[in-house]
Amino acid sequence: MEEAGRIRWMNRENLEQKERNQQEELLLQSLYKLEPEYWSGVKLVEDSLYGAFRIHEGAQGTVSAAFLLNEQDFILVTGKEEKEILLRSENPPMEEGLEELFEAVLKRGQQKVERMEKYLIDMEQEIVKGKINRNRNQNIFECKRSLAVWKNDYVQFLNVVEGINGLEQKKKEGRGQILNEESACFFRVYENKLRRLTEETQFLYEELVHIREALDAALSYEQNHIMKVFTTVTTVFMPLSLIAGWYGMNFAGMPELGWKYGYPFAGVLSVLVVLVCIWFFRKKKLF
User: Fold this and answer.
1) pLDDT per position as a tens digit, 267-284
2) What are 212-259's pLDDT values in tens digits?
3) 254/252 Cα distance (integer angstroms)
């Protein structure tokens, strides 16, 4: 029998292949619930808490884990590779193991949030400076998708911790106890830390809305500027169309047609008209 007050790890693959007792069956069923239902929660069976959670780790894939928790034991069920992400020590004391597990989740989460925050600040600065990348909409969508996944993971994990604290409180009100005082203190502390991480992720998710609005405003400004240039150019050269059409009628009564300087005169007139139009628009600060 394992020493009391320590965290024990069970390999999911081995557990699926062996003959299981009631505790092991409940652990495995908690893990299976994650697959079709994205279930996260805790249930009390006798004097033990059973639950499961899932966390996405990017290139490392998804970490799915089930656990049993009582006053003397914490049993964690994961795959072998997933165990290396959550718990590196072998059968550590319960308080030490709980700290290691929570810090693994919180440290990775905080690092991801900080990197995302810096990326969004840089993106916003580029938009404000007018450096508009045509792939920005795709970048924003990818950020939104990542933040949604992280938010769901942290909310799910927070629900598990809140469930543990809630059931422990109810048990205490009935003059019972599920966790020892040190473990209960850990869960209360890390509930607050998880809530802050969840709120930071939600804040970044909402910040994306403002960045998207800034991008839309910058794109609209750029399009308006282009239309303004086209309109100004068209207006400047519109009198030339009138001059060309006027002299193109070739009426016999036009004195310029028989004048040997008629062609240069039309050219000079056109240049003067363009220069006057440009002067006028620059004076009005239209370009």
Assistant:
1) 888 889 888 888 888 887
2) 888 888 888 888 878 888 888 888 888 888 888 877 777 677 777 777
3) 6
Question: What tokens appear for 281 in the block?
Answer: 């628009």
Q: What is this structure's pTM?
A: 0.71
Query: Do 82 and 57 form a contact (C-beta atoms < 8 A)?
Result: no
Q: Which residues contact 74 (CB under 8 A, 6 or more apart)?
A: 6, 7, 8, 67, 68, 94, 97, 98, 183
Domains of the chain (ranges plus CATH)? 6-222 (no CATH), 223-283 (1.20.58.340)
Torsional sign, CA 6, 12, 18, 23: positive
Measured from the Cβ of residue 63, the count of other Cβ atoms closer than 10 Å reads 22
Q: Which of 55, 58, 30, 57 is closest to 153 using CA atoms?
A: 55
pLDDT of the residue at 193 = 92
